[in-house]
């Protein structure tokens, strides 16, 4: 759940409370909708003897812990009021082993032994109960009596009255978000034509906020204002609880186990300014109460449900956090509910009166064990197995601070509406998936045409597409956008069914693990990579097929294809050889940063890669500007000059769209911090991210400490870094051998008439750069075959060394 926004409920609803169900007649009906267990008949409340009135309970203490002493005392049941139960067919008890009898035994005693003994009743649990005219089930939210004598709970109006005309019903009413009072649209001054959007406060609350003296309307003489259940709950005259389970005791009294809700005033932190008026907290306090104390239903909703509750009545409340009554901290319900729970058995049937476990006339436990020992033992084994499975679900789990809880809910988490700057920061994140991908329409059309042609043509062999380009040019995102578009066409029935498998080379521990991933995607089973290779070879060769959709075409997308290179290049050969086989129905799309990767492979591999290639060139400043503007559509938080300045700066470096988005997001953070420090409210439509913020973001991104280390490193250290960038773009591999790097440095120094260094000097400089974490060196002996890798993006090296006054000729290699 997004912590940055708290949903508010729309006002377009009638201010009316769900009518309380009328009292049941003398003989309440049983719940016939649930076959689980018959509900006993119950006499109405008026049938209780008047000779033993119930003493009123003392007012509740302000303690946050609800104890069982808060339960109301139920009038004593008279013997004549015992509910009538349907008499089930009694079960025959197995005869006990014969015991030696004395010769002095009368015929009367024998006859007495043959008579059936009364069968003791057991506690019966229910899923749903019809009680006092209302239907209650586990998981329902209800109002619970808190005390008697303060105000009659029977006075529960069906609809709330207007705070001006003091009449209920009629036309649409709007609720004030401050006092929670209901007002007819025509009674408000000035009158409202329609329900306002967003938060709305009545004129009386607005005047009180402004400090103006105002008198609220009073009811007519002789008319008494009756409070609703919502008002009683918010004034601590009622409880709210969630039913966890329902059962009936052997004496016929129905009970419920409930989990209490509390209002913010009852917490240790008290009501905070950012608490909503209808907000409740769910607690970890459980109690057993009698069904006699439950009034009727209320509706406690999650933030998303509360936002969509347009006409939910007056008994709708908001709950986002759970409150620990012992440690006085808060936990988000979304974090608690995300925990895996033991799933219910789908074959679990509703309660059957013939079952032994919860029958009204069950025998004792000894009879059950004697009657069906095998069934009980198997049930115990299944129960132990389920408990072990539930315990294993949480094995090795690490809980963070969000699981432990916080003392107070931060105010910035509960803000109702995001500012334009906060929206801009969220939409400029690299993890945010854009609605559309601009500036790549031509490339996406080529990819779509290639995939459609490969799917529709069964006899076409060797379908392979190689996509290359510098990092940050939208290669992978374009392919995924095309596949989402084709998926929508498939759902509409306009395309032949196919299977899509996406693999990223960076996520593979070794190149051979790609066989395991492909086999698992097709079959759903895990095997070793050697067995997976054998099964896949048979599948694509026309032998034993894998999976249920064996006849469907398979589109295999491999990102970072160059990471699958091995010493003998067998992995790439096998993957590119499968599409060339008859009836393989395999299409391979490879993505890498190297332009001439096919030419560097063995001839048998490059020939199978085919001639279909697609190049993604770096973005120019106009394209970068269009990408940023498309993400900020509808958010007026940037100046046009600021976006253009950031686009030109990044386009001059590398044309990486990710770097441009990062600079703009950092500039928005600077502007947001400046506005909050000044204390001024940002007006909508005002551009607050200016050129200064972009300049500060660029300086932070490109003037980081590691940039300064690159600028101040020795002359041969700069040459080594530029040579590593050059080898990176030339080979497309993230690692380079020291021997090959030294050969490049010697060649450049000879061409540009620089002093040739020795191997020891270069090796020592690489060790210094490794100590500074500018590059990563392979562990082991320092020799010429040691592998080196850049620890920072190549853009940083380009920015730091492109205009080096000491070595001006380095710019032609960047």
Automatic annotation (TrEMBL):
GO terms for molecular function: ATP binding; ATP hydrolysis activity; chromatin binding; DNA replication origin binding; zinc ion binding. Residues 1-123, 338-382 are annotated as: Disordered. SMART domains: AAA, BAH, PHD. One of its GO terms (cellular component) is nuclear origin of replication recognition complex. Residues 110-123 have a biased composition (Basic residues). Residues 338-350, 359-372 have a biased composition (Acidic residues). Residues 217-334 form the BAH domain. Its main location: nucleus. InterPro entries: AAA+_ATPase, AAA_lid_10, ATPase_AAA_core, BAH_dom, BAH_sf, Cdc6_C, ORC1/CDC6, P-loop_NTPase. It holds the Pfam family PHD. Keywords: Activator, ATP-binding, DNA replication, DNA-binding, Magnesium, Metal-binding, Nucleotide-binding, Nucleus, Transcription, Transcription regulation, Zinc, Zinc-finger. Residues 46-64 have a biased composition (Low complexity). It comes from the Eukaryota. It is found in: Nucleus. GO terms for biological process: DNA replication initiation; mitotic DNA replication checkpoint signaling; response to sucrose. Residues 159-208 form the PHD-type domain. Component of the origin recognition complex (ORC) composed of at least ORC1, ORC2, ORC3, ORC4, ORC5 and ORC6. ORC is regulated in a cell-cycle and development dependent manner. It is sequentially assembled at the exit from anaphase of mitosis and disassembled as cells enter S phase. Binds unmodified and methylated histone H3. Component of the origin recognition complex (ORC) that binds origins of replication. DNA-binding is ATP-dependent, however specific DNA sequences that define origins of replication have not been identified so far. ORC is required to assemble the pre-replication complex necessary to initiate DNA replication. Belongs to the ORC1 family. This is Origin recognition complex subunit 1. The lineage of its organism: Eukaryota, Viridiplantae, Streptophyta, Embryophyta, Tracheophyta.
């Amino acid at each position: 759940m997004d912590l940055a926004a708290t949903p508010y409920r729309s006002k377009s609803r009638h201010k009316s409370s769900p009518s309380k169900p009328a009292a049941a007649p003398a003989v309440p009906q049983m719940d016939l909708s649930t076959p689980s267990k018959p509900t006993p008949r119950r006499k109405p409340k008026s049938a209780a003897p008047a000779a033993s009135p119930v003493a009123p309970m003392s007012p509740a203490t302000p303690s946050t812990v609800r104890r069982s002493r808060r339960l109301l005392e139920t009038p004593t049941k008279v013997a004549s009021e015992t509910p009538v139960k349907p008499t089930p067919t009694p079960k025959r008890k197995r005869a006990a082993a014969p015991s030696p009898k004395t010769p002095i035994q009368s015929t009367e005693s024998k006859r007495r032994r043959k008579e059936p003994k009364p069968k003791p009743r057991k506690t019966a649990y229910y899923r749903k109960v019809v009680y006092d005219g209302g239907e209650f089930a586990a998981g329902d939210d209800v109002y619970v009596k808190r005390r008697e004598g303060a105000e009659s709970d029977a006075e529960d109006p069906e609809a709330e009255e207007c705070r001006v005309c003091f009449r209920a019903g009629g036309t649409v009413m709007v609720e004030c978000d401050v006092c929670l009072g209901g007002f007819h649209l025509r009674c408000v001054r000035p009158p409202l034509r329609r329900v306002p959007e967003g938060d709305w406060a009545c004129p009386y609350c607005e005047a009180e906020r402004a400090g103006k003296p105002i008198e609220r309307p009073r009811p007519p003489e002789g008319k008494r204002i009756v409070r609703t259940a919502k008002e009683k709950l918010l004034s601590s005259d009622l409880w709210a609880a969630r039913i966890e389970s329902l059962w009936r005791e052997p004496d016929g009294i129905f009970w419920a186990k409930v989990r209490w809700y509390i209002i913010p005033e009852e917490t240790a932190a008290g009501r905070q300014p950012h608490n909503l008026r209808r907000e409740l907290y769910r607690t970890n306090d459980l109690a057993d109460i009698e069904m006699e104390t439950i009034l009727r239903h209320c509706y406690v909703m999650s933030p998303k449900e509360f936002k969509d509750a347009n006409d939910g009545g007056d008994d709708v409340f908001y709950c986002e956090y759970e409150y620990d009554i012992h440690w006085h901290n808060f936990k988000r319900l979304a974090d608690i509910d995300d925990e895996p729970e033991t799933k219910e058995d789908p074959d679990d049937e509703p309660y059957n009166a013939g079952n032994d476990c919860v029958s009204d006339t069950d025998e004792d436990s000894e009879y059950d064990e004697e009657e069906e020992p095998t069934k009980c033992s198997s049930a115990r084994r299944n129960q132990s197995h389920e408990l072990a499975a539930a315990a294993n679900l949480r094995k090795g789990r690490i809980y963070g601070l969000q699981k432990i809880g916080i003392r107070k809910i931060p105010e910035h988490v509960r803000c109702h509406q995001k500012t334009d700057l906060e929206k801009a920061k969220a939409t400029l994140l690299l993890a945010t998936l854009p609605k559309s991908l601009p500036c790549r329409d031509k490339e996406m059309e080529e990819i779509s045409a290639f995939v459609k042609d490969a799917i529709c043509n069964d006899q076409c062999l060797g379908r392979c597409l190689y996509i290359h380009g510098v990092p940050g040019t939208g290669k992978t995102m374009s392919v995924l956008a095309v596949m989402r578009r084709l998926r929508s066409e498939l759902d509409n029935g306009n395309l032949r069914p196919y299977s899509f498998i996406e693999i990223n080379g960076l996520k593979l521990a070794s190149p051979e693990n790609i066989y395991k991933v492909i086999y698992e995607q097709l079959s759903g089973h895990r095997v070793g990579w050697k067995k997976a290779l054998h099964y896949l070879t048979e599948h694509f060769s026309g032998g034993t097929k894998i999976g249920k959709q064996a006849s469907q075409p398979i589109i295999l997308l491999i990102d970072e294809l160059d990471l699958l290179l091995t010493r003998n290049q067998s992995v790439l050969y096998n993957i590119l050889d499968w599409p060339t086989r008859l009836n393989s129905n395999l299409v391979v799309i490879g993505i890498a940063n190297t332009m001439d990767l096919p030419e560097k492979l063995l001839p048998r591999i490059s020939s199978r890669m085919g001639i279909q290639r697609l190049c993604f060139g770096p973005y120019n400043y106009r394209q970068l500007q269009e990408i940023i503007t498309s993400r900020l559509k509808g958010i007026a938080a940037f100046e046009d000059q600021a976006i253009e300045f950031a686009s030109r700066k990044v386009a001059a470096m590398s044309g990486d769209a990710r770097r441009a988005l990062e600079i703009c997001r950092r500039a928005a953070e600077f502007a947001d911090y400046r506005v909050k420090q000044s204390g001024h409210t940002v007006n909508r439509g005002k551009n607050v991210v200016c050129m200064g913020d972009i300049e500060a973001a660029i300086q932070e991104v490109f003037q980081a400490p590691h940039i300064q280390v690159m600028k101040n490193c020795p002359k041969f250290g700069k040459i080594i870094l530029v040579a590593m960038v050059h080898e990176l773009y030339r080979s497309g591999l993230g690692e380079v051998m020291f021997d090959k790097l030294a050969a490049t440095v010697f060649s450049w120094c000879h061409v540009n008439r620089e002093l040739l260094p020795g191997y020891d000097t270069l090796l020592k400089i690489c060790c210094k750069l490794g100590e500074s974490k500018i590059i990563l060196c392979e562990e082991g002996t320092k020799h010429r075959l040691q592998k080196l890798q850049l620890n920072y993006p190549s853009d940083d090296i380009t920015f730091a060394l492109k205009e080096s006054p000491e070595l001006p000729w380095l710019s032609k290699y960047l």
